[in-house]
Amino acid sequence: MAVWYSLAAFGFALLVIFVQLMLHLVGKEPRDARVIVERELTLNTLQPGERVIRTVPVFRRTGVDYFRLTRGLLVLTDKRLIYLGVPPRDITGASDGPPTFDQREFRIDTLTKLEPSFALLGFARALRVETPDGSVNLGVPSGSWQKALLMRQAWDAKHRKLYALGAWSTKVRAARAELQKELQEYRRQPVYHLVRPGDAISAIASWYETSPEKIQELNGIVGNKIKVGQRLLIRPGG
Q1: Are residues 229 and 195 in contact, defined by beta-carbon separation less than 8 angstroms?
Q2: Which candidate, 48, 145, 58, 41, places its Cα nearest to that of 101?
Q3: From CA 26, how far away is CA 68, in angstroms rounded?
Q4: What is the pLDDT of residues 146-180, one digit of tens each?
Q5: SS (H, E, C) the chain
Q6: In degrees to the nearest 10, what's the CA dihedral of 14, 16, 17, 19?
Q7: Contact criterion met (CB below 8 Å) for 154 and 76
Q8: Which residue has the higher pLDDT, 122 or 156?
Q9: Nearest by Cα to 104 from 145, 62, 135, 127
Q10: What is the distance in angstroms between the CA of the first residue and the CA of the last residue of the chain?
């Protein structure tokens, strides 16, 4: 019987310690995290003229503070994708200290992906931001998943525009390359001018953007006399 009393007392003591620890941890969580993040976003993060398209409340866990959430926002603007979070306060630090921020930004390009995922061992939905340098998995509260889907739609729309712009740029580059090829082929061919009534060497040179001296040299002309029907070499081929 004494053993059972000892075990019960020990269990009760553990329960008290656990409750005190949880209360302490909750006390160290940033108060009004959403308000703190929104204020930081507005005052210090967004650039002048940067427009917010979509925002989603998110959370993440780190290896150091796995049992305490880093709460924040995932923000899609017309220029970039931003994650801004408020990490849990240091348990050993002052409770009224200024909040610190976990801020990351991602370029809106075809190398960055925003995909649905899971967090908390698969018990919560999440958005995963994948880049060539790594990925960040951000949990989404169940009540905000519709906002996450709307952000995915906005992200996909931007990607479609990027792909369309890339395809258009590819066509433009191909057209320029073809035009350059045709110009090079044209420059390899000799250019002649058939003298008409009223033509003068100076006027012909101005028309073809060359000099009278060059036309005289190419055609062995001494002076400025030319004849109607004369075929003048303006530019040699090669």
Answers
A1: yes
A2: 41
A3: 8
A4: 999 999 999 998 888 877 877 777 788 887 888 88
A5: CHHHHHHHHHHHHHHHHHHHHHHHHHHHCCCCHHHHHHHHHHHHHCCCCCCEEEEEEEEECCCCCCCCCEEEEEEEECCEEEEEEECCCCCCCCCCCCCCCEEEEEECCCCCEEEEEEECCCCEEEEEEEECCEEEEEECCHHHHHHHHHHHHHHHHHHHHHHHHHHHHHHHHHHHHHHHHHHHHHHHCCEEEECCCCCCHHHHHHHCCCCHHHHHHHHCCCCCCCCCCCEEEEECCC
A6: 120
A7: yes
A8: 156
A9: 135
A10: 111
pLDDT of residue 121: 66
What CA–CA distance (Å, rounded) separates 74 from 219?
74
**Rounded-to-integer distance, Cα 91 and Cα 27, Å:** 9
Q: In the Cβ-directed half-sphere of 32, how many Cα atoms lie within 13 Å?
A: 6
Q: Determine if the pTM surpasses 0.70.
A: no
Tokens of 14: 């553990």
Q: Which residues pair with 115 in a beta bridge?
A: 128
Phi, psi of 229 (to 5 degrees): 90, -5
- CA–CA gap between residue 45 and residue 38 (Å, rounded): 10
Half-sphere exposure of 152 (CA within 13 A, CB side): 15
User: Whole-angstrom Cα distance, residue 108 to residue 69?
Assistant: 27
Give the residue from 122, 49, 114 showing the smallest Cα distance to 75. Answer: 114
